[in-house]
Structure formats: structure tokens, C-alpha cells
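[INFO] parsing input record for Glutamate--putrescine ligase
[DEBUG] input buffer:
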Amino acid sequence: MNAADWLAARPGIRSIRVAASDLNGQARGKRLPAGHAAKALAGETRIPLSVLNVDIRGDDIEGSPLVFESGDRDGLLRPSGRGFVPMPWLDAPAALLPCWTFREDGAPFLGDPRQALEWVLARWRARGLSPVAATELEFYLIDDAGAALRPPPSPRSGKRRLGGEILSLRALDAFDGFFDDLYAACEAMGVPAESAISEAGMGQFEVNLAHGDAMKAADDAWLFKLLAKGLARRHGFAASFMAKPYADHSGNGMHVHFSVLDEGGRNVFDDGGEGGTATLRHAVAGCLSAMPASALVLAPHGTSYDRFVDGAHAPTGIGWAYENRTAAIRIPSGAPEARRIEHRVAGGDVNPYLLLAAVLGAALAGIEDGAEPPDPLSGNAYAQDLRAIPDTWDDAIAAFETDPWTRRILPDELIRNFVATKRQERTLWDDTPEAERADLYLDTV
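[DEBUG] output buffer:
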């Protein structure tokens, strides 16, 4: 069923949303009557290009060439190919048309995070290769109605879960109504949600999305975050992907697993054994070399750096290992044909498009160079003398702006806009009282 038929089969839908992801992963676009669906599907919805380059509050970036210097020119929102999806977190039936942004002459707007990922994937395709990816999304359910953040009471028992209860079915069942609605909505939206588990933090959960084409994996993660945040509010609490909502509890991560298929559909990381191919090692080497440059993508907000604590399940040193969750890059065990790389650095607050662009861009650069990584780690990576991942926002901004690796893995326009955005947000962070910082980021990122 095409998108127009999908809408026609749902006469109760009276409004649509046409939107793309900004640099922080927020949906930016327009609300239109359902009668405008044909125009939206034709890619005729106009939007200022500067809208995809705003700060965390949605304010213009001071001095951005996209605003006054260019006359704040329009671009076009064109459908991403997903078609309309339902928006079950709203009170009235509505549909969302996920889009990406083009200039009026038809050229891709490379300040669009989805276009930046496509820029990377085009380079893979030029080599006859196709990355396949999957994401693991951690988030907290939070009662933010009072002065202090705390877990919401269970709708079943009325009690608050104050412990981590790792992989506890009781913790999942306490919010069974929310998860039933979440999985039903994922099915309706075409988001391939698989297992859900309770995690180490109080009120913390993880949902894994199935592997597939890398662009679809990013689309799925972006839609899942919109869905989880919106649906949680319907249930009377917040879903937060913020990297560290609680100082004394585990942070939220978004781990990425990826492998690469050749034109015959063969996994080029598979050598029939546990070690993986030379191509896998080259990809690992690229990811390690680009980690300082890509840290700002992996940890994009002021709160992101609270997560980098030794021994707290977030990697702090640049290294790799086989079947070792203390390393930044892990090669999971399992069947050789499923040999893959797990990149474990990113927080839950990342933009999924930029995350995959940075990780896959780095892996490709390593393959192009034929680079070899250092020896894989053994034992506890936290106890070893490793080069540190940038652990302050200032250091990450500086590395992203100046490290040559950044321009190897991302387009120049994206780099310029992202740096300007993060510098403005850094100033905003300093000007925001500490008590208000969580409110700024809690269910925004």
C-alpha cells in the first residue's frame, strides 16, 4: 500500500506532520491538514534550511550563514521513502511523513543529518559494499512532576522501583501497559523492536531494534525515540534518553552493531572463525583512530560527559577487544556469518543519523587505509593505560573542529553547522542554573 492509499484507508486522520531531523535529533517541520498529503508526498513542503541548524532550545545559531547572510533561504522537505506513519502518542489520529532536506535546485542539503549519513553510505556503495546496522537504545522512565527526578510509580502496584533490578521481569511487568502500547506502536510504525530488558539504573530499560540497512536502522532509531518520549507522556511520565539523568546511577547508552555485505550478500567480516577478516580489523582501526574526532557526535551535550566514569559501564579508553564489554569497541562472539563490530561509546542522547555517519565513516576510512589496530585488550579495560576518549565538552568540540579525521568522515557543511551549534549550546549551558539543566535536556534529546 502506498502512502496515499494508507491515508485514504484511515479517514479518521485529519492532520499530518511533515518533518526532518535537526542536528540534535529533534523533529522540525510543519503540521498540515490531511488534505495536503499529496503536496507533501510530492516534496513541495518548504522550510527554511536554518531550521535544521538550531540549538537545543530551537533558537537560531548566532552568525550562521544559513540565517541573515543568505536571506534565510528555503529548502524542500522531500519524503525519505518511509511513507506516512501513525503518531499514537497524540490524542487525535495523525500521521507523520519523515523527510529529508534538499536545496531548491535539488541538491542535497548536507547540513541535514540524514543527508550526511547518505553522503557516507554513497562512499560505501562506490566500493560495492553495504553496511548493515542495529541499535540498542537505553532510556529511563522518570517522574519529573516534583522538585526532584524519581522513578514513576508502577501502575500495577503504585510503588516506585528504587533499585536497578538488572534483567528483572518484575521491573518490566510493572510497566506492562506502557510496553504493550510501545510494541504495538512500533509494529504500526514499522520499527522492528525486539527484546526489552530492565537495566542497571532505577527505572532504566533497553529496547533492541533489529538489524537492517544502515539508513533504515537510523530511521528506526530516530522514530523510536520520538515514539517512546511521546508515548511515555500519555502514560503520565517521561521517557528520557539523556546520557546521565541521575548522578548515582548508570547512564544511557546507544550501542551500534554493524557488519558489511558485499555485492553477493556475503559478510566481509566473516573469515569462518572467531577472529574475523583483515577488513574487520581495518574497520576497527578506523573507528579507534577517529574516536577523538567523533567524540562530539557520540557525546553531544553538556550532560553527556557525566556518563564517562571508570567502571560505570561506559567506555572511557580507546581500545578494542573480543567479547569484552569494558572496551570501547567489542567484537561479539557467535556464528561466524554474523561477525560484527559493536561500537559502545555513544550515549542515548545522540542523533542516530550522525552516530551512524560518524561510526561508518570512520570504519570506511580505516578500510581505505588498510590500517591495523593495536592488539586487542584482555581483562578490564578501565584498569589499563589507554588513550582517553575526550571527557569534557570543550575538549570534544575542539577535537571535532580541528582533528583531520573529522573531515575524512563527515561533510564540511555538517561540520561547520555542528560546531557552531555546540559552541552556542556550550554558552547556554554556562548561563543555565544547574537546577534547570535537567529540565532543558530531560526528554528533548
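[INFO] The first helix runs from residue 3 to 8.
[INFO] shutting down worker
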